[in-house]
Records
---
Amino acid sequence: MSTPRSLALPPGVYAVTIETDRGDFAAHTVLTEGAVGHVLLVPGWTGSKEDFTAFLPLLAAAGFDATAYDQRGQYETLGTPDDDYTLAGFAADALAVRGMASGAARSHLLGHSFGGLVAQQAAIADPSSWHSLSLLCTGPGALGETPGRPPLTPLVQALGVMTLAEIRAALPSDPTLAPDIAAFLDRRFTSNAPASLKAITQLLIDAPDIIDEVAGTGLPFWVGRGADDDAWPHDVQATMARRLDTEVHVVEGAAHSPAVENPQALLDAWLPFLKENT
C-alpha cells in the first residue's frame, strides 16, 4: 500500500463522488483552464485515490485535468459481497469513471501496481477510450508470492475468518509515522469491502498474462517503476516493456509508490510521453 505524506488536499484538488451507471466512485480531481487532455489514475492493492493526491497538482500545472478514484470496494467507494470483482469488472468501472470524469473523447490511462492489471484489461476492453496506456510498478500478470513481501495466500484465507481490524493489527506497522497518517492507513484498510480485498488479493496471486493482447490494441505504451521497487521483479517489468516495444523508465528516489515518494521525478519521467501522445 502507498503511504501518503499528507492528508491535506492541495489547492485545486477536490474530493468528489463520480456517479456512473455502475455505481458511485469516490475520487480526487483536478481541473485546469484550457486543459490539453485528461488523465485517469487507477490505484493498487489496499490503495486509494490518496495515492495520487500530491501528484494531481503537478499534472494540472502541466496542463492536464486528472482523476484518481477508489476502485470498487476500496476505502470510500462502497462494495457489496455480490459485486463484480473480476478484472473485467474492475476494468468496466474504470471505463465508466472515465466516461463521467472526462469531457474529452479519450483519456490517458495509468495503472499503479494492481491498478496496472486493471488498466491493461480496460485498454483491451475499449482501446478507443484511451490516448495511451501507462503501467507503473506493475507487471504482465500475477505478482504471486514475491520474496521479501508479505505472503498473499494467508490473507485470502484469513478474509472471512478474521475481521479486517484483526488482520490489520497483525500486519507490520511503521512506528515512525505521524499519528494522523497511521490512523488513515488503519481506517483505509478496515474500510475495504472484504469481498473486494479478497478478490484483488487472489488476482495478485493468479491473474493471467495478457500483454500480447494489450500490445495488440496499438496504443502508445509507457512503463515505469521506482528505482527501489520491491514488487514485480525488475527483470519481469523490463521484459514486459520490451513486449510493448518500449523500455522501463526508472524514477529515482522512489520505491513502489513513486507518485507519493517522488512525484516530481515521476512527472519528469512521464510528461514527455503524455505530451507526445496528446
---
Amino acid sequence: MTPDAAQWAILWPALVAGLLVTATHVPLGMQVLERGIVFIDLAIAQIAGAGVIFADFLGWEPTGAAVQIAALSAALSAAALLTWTERRWPEVQEAVIGVVFVLASSVAILILAKNPRGGENLKDLLSGQILWVNPARLPLEALAYATILAVWFGARERIGRIGFYVLFACAVTISVQLVGLFLVFSTLVIPALATYYSRRYRYWKAYAVGVLGYALGLAGSLAADLPSGAMIVCAMAAVGAFMALASGRRPPGAASPGAKT
C-alpha cells in the first residue's frame, strides 16, 4: 500500500534516525570488529540504558538534560573501566565485557522490579521505539553525531584507546535512546561483518547495508504491520548476507582489508 501523510510523518523521522545511527556506527563497528571486542557495544549501551532507568527511578524528566547526563556519565564510566581492563588484562577483555553487560542488565532489572511499567521500559530499552522518534531532537543529535565523525576521521590515529572508548560511549549513549539496544548492536556489527572481506569500497558497501536495512525494515514494518525494530534487524541481516556473498572471501595470504575504501 502507499503510505499516507500520517504514515510518512512517522516514517521519515525514524528513517533519519536510522541514517544518523548508521553514519557513526559503521566506522566504529569496523574498529570493534578489528579489536575483537564485538560485545563492547552491548555492555556500554546496557550501562547507558541503566543510567536512563535510574534517572527515571529518581523521577527526572525523561527527555531532560539530567537524564542525558546520567546516561552519558554511566557510559563514560564504563568506557574508563574497559580502557583500564584492556590495558591491564587484554587477554580476557571480551570476558570482562560480558560480565559488565550481565551486571548492568541485572542492575536495570532490579531497579525496574518495583516499577509498574518496568516490563514496558525494559522492552523499550532493548527493542527501542524508533517510530516515535521526536523530530525536534534530530538536529541536535545530528550535530553530536557529526562531531563524533569529525573527531574519528580527523584524529583517530591520535586519540588512542581512551579516545576510542570515549567516542564510542558518546555515540552509543545517543543511539540506544534513539533506536534501542538491538538496533545499536545490529548497526555496529552487521555492516562491518558483511564487508569484512571486501578489498574495495568497504565503507560504501557497509553504509549500503545499514541504509538499506533501515529503509527496507521500515517499509516492511509498515506493509506487514509488524514491530519495526525486529523488521529492521532482519532486513539488515538479509542485506548483509547478500553483500557478504557478493563480495566473496579474501584469498588466503591476502592482506587484511582493514577499514580502507
---
Amino acid sequence: MMNVLVCIKRVPATGAKIVLTTDEQAIETRRLGFTISPHEECGVEEAVRLIEKHGGTSTVLTLGPEAATEQLRYAMAQGIDRAVLLETDDGDWGPIATAKAIVKAIQAQQDEVGAFDVLLFGNESADNGGYQVGIRVAHGLDLPCVSGIKALDINNGTAIARREADGGWEIFEVSLPAVFTVKEGINLPRYPSLPGRLKAKKKEIPHLGPERTEDGLRKIRLKVPKEQAAGAEILGEGPQAAPKIVEILKKVGGLEL
C-alpha cells in the first residue's frame, strides 16, 4: 500500500498568440481556457498507475485561485482519490513562496492522512518554466529528489527512476519517501471517463489559506519574445525547377547521386 501526492498547476491553454496585460505583469487570459500543466498531467497519470499497481491512496494538491478546483476535479476524474486547494487571490506566486506554502501543506496533510511515500511534480510548469518548485519542496522536506524522469518503478520501499541522457539513460535508485519531477513521455495520460467525472463532481475539496512569504525574487515585467520570421523561396515552375531542387537536396544531404 502506498500514499502518493501529486502537485499540479493551473495554466493558460495557450494554443494561440500570447498577449500580455497592459501593465505587462501577466498573460491576458480573458479569451483563454485553462488546463493542467502538461508535465503535471503525466504526474497525475503516474500517481494513478502507482495506486492501481500497489494499492493505497492518492492526493492531488495545487496552489492557485478558487477556479483551480476545475483542474483538481479533472485529476480526480482521472482516478486521484482526494484533492486539496491552497487558495490564493493575488496573482501568481514565485517559486520560493510556492514551495514554502506547499511544504507547510504537505506537513499538515501528513499529520492527517499519513506520510507520503512518493511526491510527484511536473519537471517545470508550462507558463513560467522555472524548474524549481519540486526541488525546493524536496529540500524543505529533507527528501531525496530525482528530476526530469521518464520512467519510475517502485519495489519494496525503493524507487528506480530513469532520466534520458545523451546516448542512453541515467538510472537512480533511491529509498522512499522521495520526490520526483516527471517529464512528458513518462506515460500517456488517460481521458477521464464519464463515471469518473460524475464522481469527481461530488467530492469535497478542502480549501486552505496559505500564508504568502517573502519570495526573494521580484518580477519587473513580462516580455513576449519576437516571433521567428518565416519565408519561402520560389524555385521555379514545372520542370524548370528540378535542377534547383536537386541542388538544394545535395546541400542538405538528402540526395546521393
---
Amino acid sequence: MSPIDAASVASLRARTGVSIAECKKALEEAGGDEEQAIDILRKKGIASAAKKAGRDQKEGLVFAAEAKGKVALVKLDCETDFVARDENFQAIGKELAAKLLAGGVDAAKALAEEKIPALVQKLGENISVGALSVTEAAVNGVYVHSNGKIGVVVGLSAGSPELAKNIAMHAAAMNPLYVKPEDVTDAAVEKEREIWKEQLAKEGKPEQIMDKIMIGKEKKFREENALLTQEFVKEPGKLIKDLLSGADVVNYVRLSVS
C-alpha cells in the first residue's frame, strides 16, 4: 500500500474533527479508504464527532491571555449558546489561550487536536477553533465583552494600557475593519462605488459633478471604516488618532462570534 498523504489525512480530519494522528492511523488500517476509516473511528467511539463535524457553528466564545507585552486571542466555536456556557467548554477555551500565549500557534493547534474530539463527545456538539491570534506590542489593551462574544486587542507603540484598553473597547462597539483610511481595500471601495453610481443616477445628478461627489463619498467611506478616523465613542467629536499623542497603532485584532 502506498503511504497515506497529507491531503487524505486533512480530508478525513475535516469530516470527523478527530486528531491528525488518529486519522492517519485509521486511514492506514483502512488501506486509504476514507469511508472505511470513518467506520474504524466510529468503532473507537468517535462516531458522534464524525456525524457532527458538518454542522453549523454559530455560537462560541472568545478567550484572551496576556503576559509580558504579548496577547493571545482564541475564538472557540460551537453550535449553541448552551454549550458555550458549559464549564468544560470554557475550561478548554482558557487552556487554549494560555497554550497559545506560551507556545504559539502550533502548540495551540496540537492541544486542540488532543482535547476537542473528547469535548465533542462529552457535550454532543460540533466544536472547533475558529481563530487564533498572537500579537506583541510595547503597550497592549485587551477587551473581552461581558458576554464573551467579542474580543479585541489594540497594541500601541507608546502610551498607557488604559488608553489602549479604551480604544479596544471602542473597537468592540464600532467594529472598524481597518486601522487607517488608506488600508481600506480597492475591492471594498469599488463595491461601494457601484452602489453610489446607481444612487446618483437615480437622483438625477449631473454627470459633470458626479466625480466630485464620488471622491467625497470615498473619503467618508474610508474614514468611517478605519479605527484612527472614527469618532471616539466616549468623546464624540474627538477622533481616535487625536488620543494617541504621536503613538502608533501597531496591532489591531477583533474576533467576534457571529
